[in-house]
Design goal:
By secondary structure, the chain is α/β, with parallel strands linked by helices. It is about 45% helix and about 10% strand. A 5-stranded parallel beta sheet has the order 2-5-8-1-9, with helices on one face. Strands 3-4 form a two-stranded antiparallel ribbon.
Length: about 350
């Protein structure tokens, strides 16, 4: 591989769920890394639900080292025993469990060190995980500027390490099944780059991510009676100023906006918006979808628009992906322009 080019081994949520399911069944401890708000915990819960496992959320950040050993007590022979904590399943349980050590990198080093034996040997002092229990962990990366402590190498070597990334198709499919407001789903399909925009160096407190767009959906569904100023302030406080400006502008026109997939399916018969702002927004969503398969449909639709708008649409498609210049659809469109 050329110098300076790193392979991307991050997984979208659906890929992570498939991979994690295999590791859980193999009882292989797994560490899921990712930026804030990328659905790490939701993927773990989904895997547990599909496998019919009891899901246990253990906040490693809140643990003290002695919490893992439990409380000492003296048995009838006068020997010291340890009463294991209630957040771990009974050692003799015959059920299926998925234990997620949430925010593990945020736990203090002494707690992380106390997990060495649990992660590798499935034991903690006298306690032993039941046969049907699997152990995973989630956390943010050091670069995310969260509260993190460098994971000790002995603990890191006990885990398989996976990284999650946000994915528009995955999130929209999840959102459609979980009641995310259609305005939000439509907007993210138009502006996929705004699903997750996290800059660790930014001073802004809010940023767009799958978690905060779910918050926006909740606000949008209850926005009746809110003034435009109040709504804009709420959205800004949820996804940041830049995303809020675009989303609030989109709300003003979204009911007039044809779905871009409907246009690709019927470019000759799909409606052409009369509102210039709506039309430009539609062109913005179409050029982001353009590929060598659907460019012909986009060109057909562009030919029905005012010349300058049609040229803007097709030109944007080629600017985003220069390889589209070699498709028959673009060659025919360019030839028609010169006549």
């Amino acid at each position: 591989m050329p110098d300076g080019i790193a392979a991307d081994y991050s997984l979208k949520p659906s890929e992570l769920a498939e991979t994690l399911a295999v590791l859980v069944e193999a009882r292989q401890p797994t560490m899921i890394w990712g930026p804030p708000g990328c659905a790490k915990s939701q993927v773990a819960q989904h895997v547990a639900a599909i496998a019919k496992r009891i899901y246990v959320d253990v906040r490693a950040l809140l643990l003290d080292r002695v919490d893992l050993m439990g409380i000492p007590w003296r048995d009838s022979a006068g020997r010291t025993r340890w009463a294991p904590p209630a957040f771990l399943p009974p050692a003799d349980d015959t059920g299926l469990w998925l234990i997620n050590l949430e925010e593990l990198p945020s736990a203090v080093p002494m707690v992380q060190a106390a997990l060495y034996q649990l992660a590798l040997d499935r034991k903690c002092g006298e306690y032993e995980l039941p046969e049907g229990a699997s152990l995973i962990a989630c956390g943010n990366r050091d670069s995310d500027r969260g509260v993190t402590h460098r994971m000790p190498t002995p603990l890191a070597s006990r885990f398989v390490h996976l990284e999650i990334r946000a994915d528009v198709a995955d999130w929209c499919a999840w959102g459609a099944a979980h009641g995310i407001a259609p305005e939000v789903l439509f907007f993210i399909q138009m502006r996929p780059d705004l699903l997750h925009q996290f800059d660790p160096q930014s001073k802004e407190k809010a940023f767009p991510c799958p978690r905060t767009w779910e918050f926006v959906s909740n606000i949008v569904r209850k926005r009746q009676g809110l003034s435009p100023v109040a709504l804009r302030a709420l959205i800004r406080g949820t996804v940041g100023e830049a995303a809020a400006i675009e989303f609030c502008g989109f709300l003003a026109i979204w009911q007039e906006l044809p779905h871009p997939q409907a246009i690709i399916a019927d470019p000759a018969g799909a409606p052409v918006p009369e509102n210039p702002s709506t039309l430009i927004a539609l062109c913005g969503s179409l050029y982001r979808l353009a590929d060598d398969i659907n460019l012909s449909a986009i060109v057909t639709y562009a030919q029905r628009l005012r010349r300058e708008v049609g040229e803007f649409l097709v030109g944007s498609c080629v600017k985003r992906d220069p390889t589209l210049q070699h498709t028959p659809a673009f060659i025919q469109w360019a030839a028609a322009k010169t006549r």
